Amino acid sequence: MAILGNIIKGVINLRNSISSEANHVQNQKETLEFLLEKAKSTEFGKHYKFDELLASEDPYENFKSTIPYFDYDKIHTEWWYKLHKGEKDITWPGHPDYFALSSGTTGKTSKRIPVTEDMIEAIRSAGIKQILAIKNFDLPADFFEKEIMMLGSSTNLDLHNDHIEGEISGISASRIPFWFRGFYKPGEDISKIDDWDDRIQKIAETAKSWDIGALSGIPSWMELMMEKVIDYHKVETIHDVWPNLKVYTSGGVAFGPYQKSFKRLTGKPVHVIDTYLASEGFIALQTRPETNSMQLLTDNGIFFEFVPFQPEYIRPDGSLKPDSPCISLEDVELEQDYVLIISTVSGAWRYTIGDTIQFTDVKKGEIQITGRTKFFLNTVGSQLSVNKMDTAMRELEDQFDIDISEYTICAKRAEDGEFYHFWYLGTSHKNLDLSTIAKALDDSLKAANKNYQVARDKALNGVKVTLIDPAIFQDWSTRNKKKGGQVKMERVMNEEKFSEWENFVKIH
């Protein structure tokens, strides 16, 4: 009998505190006041007169009319650069001990996003809430005695002057509480291996000595790890190595594109629990099994704002126009894509992280990630967002009984001078008629998006499809020194990047 597991499960049942019945609007009002109060004596707080905002009748209305939107380049150029000169009390009290390295999805130069002790505590608190929420998934008692494979970036962080640098997953793993270390795999030694391929090789070699009950990590890299373990042990599925695997915690990207390929690798059903951990903070997590939506963490050091995701508010590079209208949680609506804006306990203020979300339940504060602002394709008025593209991929999978785990697209003129959408689809199924696939994809997008239909009737001449091995997408990330960790494949490329991509594909 799983005595320890029953005890742990009983404690979780007793302590379960994350509730869909929370007053999320009130949580957010209190969070904004907390952020303003704590940062009012910083340079940023003095510059924007936080004390006056706090004393006003409507702090939020004054907050958004006083403080501009910031992306990374703007806040770094105007404020965060001072942190790298050793200054403190800039946008948050003190000086951060950590900086999260994030190159985004397409950038070549790493961003350095401050991670304060307050943020580390917020991430830890979110992790505890996630564990408490597992109560709702009706797992057996012995699950709580199994080990958890957390596949992130290396925990061998770099000391740089007066701070430590690394990806947020590596920083979080390096700060795992002592009581959790016995459950954590691949363990401290393997997690410190810098080279991704060496780390995965070591995981494969050691895999059978672990009793893994849960996996956690970015889907594309988790699939590569499972494929390596399966191949190394010459078995059919990952359950042949880890028979007690019951949960996969996804994160940072929509899981939909990976459902079919993931199911093929696991062989048996697993609970897929979505989370939303970005370099800037732990934003949301799934709290109940009857939905694949995630609940915003409205009482955990992040204040959220939302800009309707409309073409007139977005620049060609995906950045937000400064006069774009913004609302708080109190005024959001269902079935509307929003650009997510955050202010945090790491000193990010009205900061665009580049993601778009949609609310599925306003009262419960539940959302789904729908894409990236940079991946919004509006050439010749087609207005395609990533969620529309993902849906089209799922329809192709069902129609042709294939799996498409990765894809990328570019809108450009062909040799005939006409505009086309050029798609590269990652699939192991190559013996398919490309014109049939292209027509099915075109029809799916027409049915899902009236703006795309209008574009197809006018300036957009058609769709061209190329099928390639999914491994080429991972090799592309490797070439750009972005293998593993928090890396996400760019879904939409500009013509310059797409030219590099097509040359890269030709040599594979």
UniProtKB/TrEMBL annotation:
GO terms for cellular component: cytoplasm. Residues 296-364 form the GH3 middle domain. Residues 389-496 form the GH3 C-terminal domain. GO terms for molecular function: acid-amino acid ligase activity. InterPro entries: GH3 (IPR004993), GH3_C (IPR055378), GH3_M (IPR055377). Coiled coil: none annotated. PANTHER family: GH3 DOMAIN-CONTAINING PROTEIN. This is GH3 auxin-responsive promoter-like protein. It comes from Psychroflexus torquis (strain ATCC 700755 / CIP 106069 / ACAM 623).
